[in-house]
Amino acid sequence: MYEKINPPTTGEKITFKNGEPIVPNNPIIPFIRGDGTGIDIWPATEKVLDAAIETAYKGQRKISWFKVYAGDEACDLYGTYQYLPQDTLTAIAEYGIAIKGPLTTPVGGGIRSLNVALRQIFNLYACVRPCRYYPGTPSPHKSPEKLDVIVYRENTEDIYVGIEWKAGSEIGTKLIKFLNEELIPATPEHGKKQIPLDAGIGIKPISKTGSQRLVRRAMKHALTLPKAKQMVTLVHKGNIMKYTEGAFRDWGYELVTSEFRHECVTERESWILENKEKILVFLLKIMRERLNLGLIL
């Protein structure tokens, strides 16, 4: 099955049921050492993870590490420009998981970014980044101890699609002329806008499917947290890009109010609930005024 690597002789695969992992006591986990600082970071990481598991499970659980290759180290083993060999892709698909160190962006070889390539190949649409403060570390924040958030970033759409053309390229120039002469003038809301002929062009697609699956994942995660932390905030630039960023916001609210209607209250609804007494007084005042004027039968 593999050309130049061999799985460990001990351990079991992680399996999945209804999208949820079933983790054995001795899972096999492929790892990519990485380039640059990865040479130093990975050995330390492996020791820390192994020690943490030993401390937590008292020898009842243990990881069987499976080394796979990507980046410069892969080229050393598989040949020039083999930054992401099939062996590695096969191993990640078979074992359903992998951990990697930092990877450099290759020069040549047809891959713009190994990180983006891995996301797109395995449809890793959610970049999940927990952010919290640890006492004793320097911080520019006034109250850093209050920082405890989990960032969910869409990982495969938007600019990560990587569809762009260099300024001055034949296709880029042709696309700019087509936009300037045909499409922009045909859309009244764009007025007399024009794209400079010496501009680079990038495509920014944001889909309803991609937006809602990210929001759905964030919502499901939030519902596993303590009540005080069950808050999801949609971050966007919809005031400027209403058909992409604004659509992301609208599709997110649509998803939340349809699939999580019994578990959520939107920001607007929370304001109404918090101010219901004021709203009731206001409505009663209007009704009284109308009654006095004989406007209500």
Q: Can you describe this structure?
A:
This protein is an alpha/beta fold. Among the domains are: 124 residues, no CATH class; 39 residues, no CATH class. 38% of the residues lie in helices and 12% in strands. The protein has 9 helices and 9 strands. The strands form 4 sheets. Strands 4-3-5 form a 3-stranded parallel sheet, with helices on one face. The protein has a two-stranded antiparallel sheet with strand order 1-2. Strand 3, helix 1 and strand 4 form a beta-alpha-beta unit. Helix 6 crosses helix 7. The radius of gyration is 26 Å and the shape is extended.
SSE topology sketch:
Blueprint: E1 15-17, E2 20-22, E3 28-32, H1 38-57, E4 64-68, H2 72-78, H3 86-95, E5 99-100, H4 114-121, E6 126-132, E7 148-154, E8 164-165, H5 170-183, E9 201-202, H6 208-222, H7 245-259, H8 267-274, H9 276-292
Parallel strand pairs: 3-4, 3-5
Antiparallel strand pairs: 1-2, 6-7, 8-9
Features:
alpha/beta, two-stranded antiparallel ribbon, 297 residues
Largest sheet: 3 strands, parallel
**Spatial order of the strands in the main sheet?**
4-3-5
Which series of helices and strands comes N to C?
A: EEEHEHHEHEEEHEHHHH
User: Alpha-carbon distance between the termini?
Assistant: 82 Å
> What's the helix count?
9
Q: Low-confidence runs (pLDDT<50, min 5 residues)? A: none
- The fraction of residues in strands falls at 5-15%
Roughly what is the average pLDDT, rounded to an integer?
A: 90
| Computed structural class | alpha/beta
Q: Shape from CA axes?
A: extended
| Total number of strands | 9
Radius of gyration based on Cα positions: 26 Å
The helical percent reads: 25-40%
Oligomer: single chain
